[in-house]
Description:
Strand content: under 5%
Low-confidence stretches: 1-20, 302-308
Structural class: mainly alpha
Shape: globular
Helix content: 55-70%
Radius of gyration: 19 Å
Order of helices and strands: HHHHHHHHHHHHHHHH
Largest sheet: none
Amino acid sequence: MTSTEVHRSPRPDGRGAAPAGLAERLAALTMPCPVHPSSHLVEAATADWAYATGLEPDPSAPWLAGRAFARCETRVVTLFARWLTLAARLREDPGAIGGIIAVAGGSEPGPAPLERAFTGLWRSCAPGMSRAWRERFTAGLAAQREALPATGTPTAEEYPARGRDAFGRYLLDLVEPCRETEVPEAVGRSRQWRALTEASGDVAAWCVDVAGGRGYVRVAAELLERSSDPVLRPRSRRGAAEEWVIDRLAVRVEELWAAARAVPALTERHGLGFTASAEVTGVACAFLTVPRAYLEWLTREHRYRHSG
């Protein structure tokens, strides 16, 4: 287990203090996220774009983007909502990722709607970014292509990295072009920045897992299946697995905030000026608001039976 992953996870055998519901564990959920004042326009523009490119709109995409970028310009929110729509469809059709990677490398798009949709988004973001950023982004796509059809159940220690890949860690890379900035490579490669991005990705990915009862929940259920504890009857294992993930999610949120608090010292250590530090801090703030939006979406949609 790496230094950026959870160290204080509850036991997968269900022993110890019973975990509370998600809303009870995370005080931040007692207050709703700020919402972008033009969210209705973002929703309409995102749906129009999806239909025009041949994709099925994803109602959660503009909802999430309007909370993740509540204080940004409308075009920023709309662009991120379109990327979220594309990402949701890629999770459903990982076989399309190969063609998209080819487009990112300079190939002409084929007739597939996902390739056409990606091409427009890529051309709106990639030209202003460095080669290092583009390579990082396409590496994230390649990792998702490998993670989604992976067979076998990973261990609890192995899953966080695979879960980030399957979710699409490149989504956090998109914060930079959406905000028209790029984190200096020295900062982005630092241990502290990786701790921030990995924690942010974990929180968002685990929310999706709990909502759908898959991913990390299945890993925990597999552990419980092998448990010899007679108290854990088969019908209760699903709920116990969800609660176990919720406990790890609560810890991961704490680690996310701790990583974010280290950013000012990180920018000072790398000698960034006022403007560059402000831009990096803005990206770091998005790494807090993106998973925060996923947390609210999880409870608002009542997909977690203990919420509210």
